[in-house]
Amino acid sequence: MDWTRRSAAELVEALAAGEVTSVELTTAFLDRIAEVDGQVRAFLHVDAEGALATARASDERRAAGELLSDLDGVPIAVKDVLTTAGLPTTCGSKILEGWIPPYDATVVRKLKEAGLPILGKTNMDEFAMGSSTEHSAYGPTHNPWDLERIPGGSGGGSAAAVASFQAPLAIGTDTGGSIRQPGAVTGTVGVKPTYGGVSRYGLVALANSLDQAGPVTRTVLDSALLHELIGGHDPLDSTSIPTEMPSFVEAARVGAGKDLTGVKVGVITELRGEGWQPGVMARFDEAVELMVSAGAEVVEVSCPNFVHAMAAYYLILPAEASSNLAKFDAMRFGLRVLPEGVDAPSAEEVMRATRDAGFGDEVKRRIILGTYALSSGYYDAYYGQAQKVRTLIARDFEAAFAEVDVLVSPTAPTTAFKLGEKLDDPLAMYLNDLATIPANLAGTPGISVPSGLADEDGLPAGLQVLAPALADDRLYRVGAAVEALLEEKWGGAILDRAPELKGASA
Amino acid sequence: MPEITRDEVAHLADLARIDLSDAELDHLAPQLSVILESVASISEVASADVPPTSHALPLTNVFREDVVVPGLTAEQALSGAPASEQQRFSVPRILGDEQ
Fold this sequence. Notes:
Distance between the termini of chain A: 25 Å
Order of helices and strands of chain A: HHEHEHEHEHEEHHEHEHHHHEHHEEH
Strand content of chain B: under 5%
Number of helices of chain A: 16
Structural class of chain A: alpha/beta
Distance between the termini of chain B: 46 Å
Strand content of chain A: 5-15%
Radius of gyration of chain A: 22 Å
Oligomer: heterodimer
């Protein structure tokens, strides 16, 4: 029995039925990592010893009838931007190489308290800046569908780990689409919860007002199970929402019944048309037709300010990032580089040399852009205006959700592009996030569900579903319905059609 | 068209406390110009009566009970520091001999 091919929900059932132990499961995933991660490079750090110790404890609890959660004993991978006590946390950057945090992020603490073995930390664009996981200081992650292509970013490691059966579940973070876009191009499910719905304590901040941790899984139900586990109010995070949310698992189970009667779906006019890959659009249109066949009412909805979202985002994000990354000063933690040819360097000289050596190109580019946007004389024209555009985008969402229950679009304009193809063209790279960014600016939740394979290249595309803030349950109902309808059409899960990695050259 | 010169990039890097090599400056300046050009339209989008939104949530002060809870030990807090001495972060000197 190849347990690595099962969904987390199926593994929960198998554990409950005594068909497998957590140690056996964890061992199976560790073996899979050993077998294929040389090609995929999804992990920056694997903690076999820690994962197996947790698995053993889970099996003992199960024997005693004292489970900590529904997912007790199911292994998971964690993006390397979340702090893990005793395990390295690098954020994909040389400036944090070797750093071992003294505390757990709240999300990580919840995973540990729920008994999930943590397999390791996954690769990412440095400080989550990127759309391809090529900006990791430790080398790129490869897309399991085609090892010469990007797995999306910045959470390409988490998505690739799940897509290549190295982990049944993973945690990602989404600042402008870094869970949903990698989900789309790897054929996995990615959820950005409502901003504040999952604690950001211990998430190394890229842009505080945009960052949100969330699930990366192979099925919508698995995302719902994980979201319920990591979500909820956290007094350690002042932006955490104290509001109770409806059950995501129940919503996913309702959606799996493939009935969308009474659901009003808005297709966003501005997120389609010229510049979108035909194969991606074809899969999107098919998914929308299936929603209609399941009883949904579909209307076209215009969100006119979405076209300005990318510009606003690429001013707000660097502004916040330039401030957040000031803490990497070579004094308190991380790298310290002494400048060459200076006898007794000052703290400032050490800081300059360290930040030059420790940060990669994309991080430097964004820090300088942010410094520019916040500088005297430009603040009103750039940062101030971007904040106003944010208001207009929130108003677009408000008007749209007065008409419809959810909005849909393709998650990303294209399938996975080739590694290196856009590295020297940051603007082209940024365009990958144009459909996902509006939700981050407005704080609304979104999910990406596999919508099929594009005809041109046979690579996965994603369908994005957006809901109003705090209505994350709608994502799970609609997402699960689309997933069930498409799988019925395909005769199985999309990942079953991924090429086999075993035996490929490392 | 907004343009950012090589000297301006060097000045911004100075403000951000990053030493950039000449090659990095040559590489970054034109890229930043292209990015700035693409986001310049933002200055014409919103009228004066649109209020800015700095955050998706209306943030208010959050207060917790003022109770003593265990924090990091000095050893834990210093565990990631490049250098420490006598339970303190050890940093390069700021003042030169002449000062």
